[in-house]
């Protein structure tokens, strides 16, 4: 399970709000985050520079509010808002658009049910007038029941030309790149046609347990059962019982062997 930053300590103090800021411009991101911090409400602030990273965070963490820019590199903010609204758990998640575009605020309110719309560039006073009553209301609502939010499982988004798949990280066995597309092997199925650079894909998975093991393969070491030597420079990685385990092989090359074995040992140490 993936844990977000604790929002309630052992002494029973008030639970902190988790705020997600989605903005691809570094300066604008820092300005929004600094504006939130200056409100001195003890917020947990999460950052995403792309829409699919934002969705990943929303899936994994107990997000209370999204501050959303409209112009993002992979999916515009309105499309992201629409996806958030179509998810059962986040259909009522408050959204505030913060953008420099000339999009119609009334349209944003009606179509995406956003809480408010702040035009960039803005001054702190304008920001505070919108955010302060919203944050106070959300904090009161979050602490009303006094129960901490349940932990969420880490997920990974796999985007193909036809569809976007949301998969549990623990279900990933390994990934293979062939040509310009990536195939991801899960415990119960295969997702083909993911178009990304392999290094970018590994980085997007964002786990120390998922690493390159061959020029064409990356492996989730959590699911490794054993490693079988083929010759002096290559090994087969075998997986725990699953539908895919007996049918698919993941290769380990000499170049990456030490890194993989070190990661396995580190995981053993961490798990006692």
Automatic annotation (TrEMBL):
Domain HTH LytTR-type residues, every copy: 158-229
Keyword Transmembrane: no
Residue numbers carrying 4-aspartylphosphate: 69
Pfam family, one: Response_reg
Domain Response regulatory: 18-135
Alphabetized UniProt keyword annotations: DNA-binding, Phosphoprotein
SUPFAM superfamilies: CheY-like (SSF52172)
MF terms (GO), sorted A to Z: DNA binding
Function: May play the central regulatory role in sporulation. It may be an element of the effector pathway responsible for the activation of sporulation genes in response to nutritional stress. Spo0A may act in concert with spo0H (a sigma factor) to control the expression of some genes that are critical to the sporulation process.
Protein name according to UniProt: Stage 0 sporulation protein A homolog
